[in-house]
Amino acid sequence: MAEQWKNIAESNFAQLAENPYPGRGIVIGLTPDGTRFVQVYWIMGRSENSRNRVFIQEENGFLRTEAKDPAKLTDPSLIIYYPVRYTGSAHIVTNGDQTDTIYDALAAGQTFEQALTTRTYEPDAPNFTPRISGVVDLADTTCAYKLSILKTNLNDPAQTMRHFFHYEHGLAGYGHFISTYAGDGNPLPSFQGEPLLVPLYDDVEQTAQAFWSRLNEDNKISLLVKTIRVDNGQTEMRVINK
After folding, report:
1. In the predicted model, what is the mean pLDDT of residues 190-197?
2. CA distance linking residue 160 with residue 117, whole number of Å
3. For 24-46, what is the mean pLDDT?
4. 25: closest CA among 52, 9, 45, 3?
5. Mind spelling out the 3-state secondary structure of the chain?
């Protein structure tokens, strides 16, 4: 089984490298030594407005997007947000302002799922970009991590499809990956199917470079890797801005 997992993960990694536009992506998993959860998040862009972004890490452990050149910012509504926040033992990562929705819900004693039932895909017709989200809650003894994607039904905005994926245990050395898009196109085709298995590494820099090097050179913008110690919740973060 271990060899099968390795082959699947390497195949998925190769497909990511061949994809010109997976859009924004999230990976959650476990380091090979099993001591840390890993969250990876990246952003890509085709338009000048989308490419005009950088990741800024705050002292409180949160991370936000910010305009690289404020003078060129035309529409901040879908590109300026907190991709990473935490409350208590719960560490959130998303591709939009639903980070705050999940943060507020968890702080109020609600669940990840309850928070996302109040949101839909992004209102950016004709793409209707999916909202992708993930959480690691060290206090949740029933689930190592969760992923979610909210998207239209075959690009029909009349229906929101809400997919949730729960992973009872982490698989040491691997993570599960979702992205907003399956590839380039007009309109952009949404990600399909279950999250994909991909490899992770013990060293945060190695993980960051492994994913960064597989993203399309023209379209990649920024990437972060956050690790969370299983035993005490201590975090480490590595950020790459193009």
Report:
1. 97
2. 10
3. 96
4. 45
5. CHHHHHHHHHHHHHHHHHCCCCCCEEEEEECCCCCEEEEEEEEECCCHHHHCEEEEECCCCCEEEEECCHHHCCCCCCCCCCCEEEECCEEEEECCCHHHHHHHHHHCCCCHHHHHCCCCCCCCCCCCCCEEEEEEECCCCCCCEEEEEEEEECCEEEEEEEEEEEECCCCECEEEEEECECCCCCCCCECCCCCEEEECCCCHHHHHHHHHCCCCCCCEEEEEEEEEECCCCCEEEEEEEC
pLDDT at 12: 94
100: Cα within 13 Å, side-chain hemisphere: 6
What is the C-alpha separation between 93 and 220, in angstroms, rounded? 18
User: What confidence category does residue 75 fall into, taking pLDDT thresholds of 50, 70 and 90?
Assistant: confident
- Which among 53, 60, 46, 47 is positioned nearest to 237, based on CA atoms? 60
Counting residues of the chain whose pLDDT is more than 70, the rounded percentage is 99
- 103 close to 92: Cβ distance less than 8 angstroms: yes
* Span 80-136, pLDDT tens digits: 899 999 999 999 999 999 999 999 999 999 999 999 999 999 999 999 999 999 999
Q: Tokens in use for 178?
A: 């979702």
Is 197:30 a contact under the CB 8 Å cutoff? Answer: no
